[in-house]
Every structure is written in structure tokens, then in C-alpha cells.
Amino acid sequence: MLLTTRGIVFRTIKYGETSVITDIFTEDKGLQTFICGSVRTAKSRMPYSLFQPMMVLEMVSYFKDDGSGGAMHRMKEARADQVWEKIPFDIRRGAVAMFMAEVCRKCIQENEEMPGLFDFLLDNLRWLDQTTHPIANLHLHFMCALSGHLGFQPESETTDDVVFFDLKEGVFVPVMPEYGYGMDELMSRQLMALFNIPLENSHEIPLSAVERRALLQKLLQFYQLHVPNFGELNTTTVLDSVFNA
User: Fold this and answer.
1) Can you give the pTM of this predicted structure?
2) Given this chain, do its domains 2-80 and 91-243 carry the same CATH topology?
3) Distances in whole angstroms, Cα of residue 167 to Cα of each of 78, 151, 163, 179, 222
4) Which among 103, 87, 84, 83 has a CA at the least distance from the CA of 95?
5) Best CA proximity match to 168, nearest among 150, 180, 184
6) DSSP single-letter state for residue 54
7) Could you say which architecture CATH assigns to the domain 91-243?
8) Which CATH architecture group holds 2-80?
9) pLDDT tens profile 8-47
């Protein structure tokens, strides 16, 4: 069958002399893998630049809808659905986009329609590309908000005496957890602020570079505890270098 849909590129690897294999989160069928032939040639109708992480495509593919979830589909046509003005040319915005793509690729495994998550990712990319506000907190806010779509976001409306975050249980608690998966009071309150603030105001949370780095490490640990096989990320080093150079 022919599938016409929008998709967000998560990962692309070179295949053969001129082709690529790419993981794309589609609006209609969730996460799928496509082979795109002859895109690494000068005269290709689907240039290689289309398949960079977090590009948003309007695409037509030959789709094998056999329900197995492991099929590789062949791309027929693709063009940019969104043309980013700043992400490809701003090293900081590009680093955040690469980080978002890697987190998503590790978390999203389902090959089914998830329109709410698709819209969430698109909104975050548009804000990343267009905002004139500082973006140093965006990757932290993204991880907090994404956890809600993945089903393990903690309840963040708490009383004043609930001031520690339990990473393993995913809840704010009144006493520091004793088994090594807790966050201290200051960091827990910063995390609670990130969970509660809208994306458009995330830059208003005052965080130093040291605090931002520490929060990221705790959020990564939070994901490792709640997402099977989440593992380590490659893009955190890039983020650290561009924001703390």
C-alpha cells in the first residue's frame, strides 16, 4: 500500500553506495524504518539533507502493513514539511535537536499512531527554531514533558513539606530516599519547576551551568530507571561543550 503521511526523522545511517536507512516517527503509523534509494547523489529528487535528525517530512512510501512491526518500507517521495530557519545553522539549537532525536529514538518503540506525541515533538521543534529567548533549559524541559507522554511523569502538584524527588519511584516525597535514588531539596524544587512551567517560559527558571548539568544527569538516571534499555546517550557531550564552552 501507499502511505502518505508526515514524519520526524530520528536517525539515519548510510546504506550501500548511495542509499540510507532511516528511522522516522510518522504521524499515522508511529515509529517506522525506511530505506531511501539514491539519496546521496547530486541529482537525487530526495536529497540526503532531508534525512538529518529532527527534519519534518511530508512523505509517500510503499508501506508493508503486515502488523509485524519489523518491516522495512521503501520511500517513494519526500519533501520538507517544515523548513527550519535556525536549527541547521545555530550550533546550540542543532545540539538540542540532536539530543531530542536521540532521546526519542531510545524511548519510542511502538509502531502505532501516536498523534499527541507527534504534535508535542513538532511544537518543541518549532519553539526551538523560532524562539528569541535563551534555550539552555529547553532540553531539560523537553525530558520532563516527554515523560508524561511516555507514561511516567510524576505528580508535581505537592505540598510544601514534599521536597525530595525519588527517582526510582518517580514521586516527590517528604524524606530523602535512603537507597541512593534521591535528589536533594534544591534540585528537587528546580525539577518541580521544570515540570510545572510552560515550554514558552522555561528560560525563566534560573539555573547555573553546574546546576543544569547536575539536573541533566539526574533526569538521565530517571529515564534509565523507567525506560527499558535506555542506556547512555552520545549527545550529552555535545550539549555540554556548546553550552558550557
Assistant:
1) 0.92
2) no
3) 41, 14, 13, 10, 5
4) 87
5) 180
6) T
7) Up-down Bundle (1.20)
8) Beta Barrel (2.40)
9) 999 999 999 999 999 999 999 999 999 999 999 988 889 9
